[in-house]
Design goal:
alpha/beta; Conserved hypothetical protein from pyrococcus furiosus pfu- 392566-001, ParB domain; 2 domains; six-stranded mixed sheet; elongated
């Protein structure tokens, strides 16, 4: 790391130039190593909230926040990358003015952040956070508002992860499982959530016809998990129809699709499971 010169304006200029070089080097590295295009993209707050579903908020007041937990922005997603390095020289003037003022010892107000899980999103203070990172500061003072969401934000690292979260949220609105039952249903392919939702709704329709009364989504979800999903997974395990690459949900969906393709029936028994065991394991897409 370059030594400070002791001249605030010169050191601020050097900091900005270093951050810009790092941003461009990261872009080149991403291109040469063929990493996903969004690997260095800042997370957009509105899209994250839309994918997770907003359930409320709580004002937490003044907090000391780790700079590394700040990964997103409300409205400045084009000016900074994921690590708050400036993406162009357009903001140079203001950035260097604030950086020089901080080096002269001038006080700065706390930034304002939204918190979702362990992530923070900037409402106000993008330049100050970028400067803090340039100066290798570990924490920053911030007024924090926590956003409560309908599903967990765990696993969000890049904007591309939001599609999976969005489909999971929609699935749980159609098949309202909760707790460990909801945690059991996990897919790597976001569109598998839609396919399973269709299957559960069809199962619920057949059950309503069988019992002669309308069953709501919550009741269908509860009975599907206990009367359909768990028995099928247990039979599959006994028959050793399993792959280390599959979650239980992926295994169930594959079994259900193959069963209907082979026998055109909505029943389960050992004979069908044995027949499915002989089928080559292949993705539907």
């Amino acid at each position: 790391m370059a030594r400070d010169t002791g001249f605030p304006e010169a050191d601020a200029e050097n900091d900005f130039q270093r951050m810009r070089r790092q941003a461009e080097l990261a872009r080149l590295t991403q291109w040469f190593t063929r990493q996903p295009a969004d690997v260095n993209a800042i997370l957009p707050f509105d899209e994250v909230v839309a994918a997770l579903g907003r359930a409320g908020e709580s004002y937490l007041g003044l907090q000391t926040v780790e700079v590394t937990s700040i990964v997103g922005s409300v409205d400045r997603t084009k000016d900074f990358d994921r690590y708050f390095r400036p993406t162009s020289a357009r903001i140079r003037s203001r950035w260097q003015r604030l950086a020089a003022a901080q080096r002269r010892g001038e006080s700065m107000p706390p930034v304002r952040l939204y918190r979702i899980g362990g992530m923070h999103f900037v409402i106000d203070g993008h330049h100050r956070i970028s400067i803090a990172i340039a100066r290798h500061l570990d924490t920053i003072e911030a007024y924090v508002t926590e956003i409560h969401t309908r599903i967990s934000p765990e696993g969000i690292n890049v904007p591309g992860d939001l599609l999976l979260k969005d489909h999971r949220r929609l699935f749980l609105s159609r098949v309202p499982l909760s707790g460990t039952q909801a945690d059991t249903i996990r897919f790597a392919d976001p569109f598998d959530y839609a396919e399973l939702a269709e299957a559960v709704e069809a199962w619920g329709f057949r059950l309503s016809q069988e019992v002669g009364e309308f069953l709501g989504r919550t009741e269908v979800a509860r009975r599907w998990f206990g009367e359909e999903f768990l028995p099928v997974i247990r039979m599959a395990r006994r028959a050793d129809v399993r792959s280390e690459l599959d979650s239980d949900a992926e295994l169930y969906l594959w079994l259900a699709c193959e069963r209907y393709r082979l026998v055109r029936k909505h029943i389960w028994d050992d004979e069908i499971i044995d027949e499915l065991r002989e089928q080559p394991r292949r993705r539907r897409r």
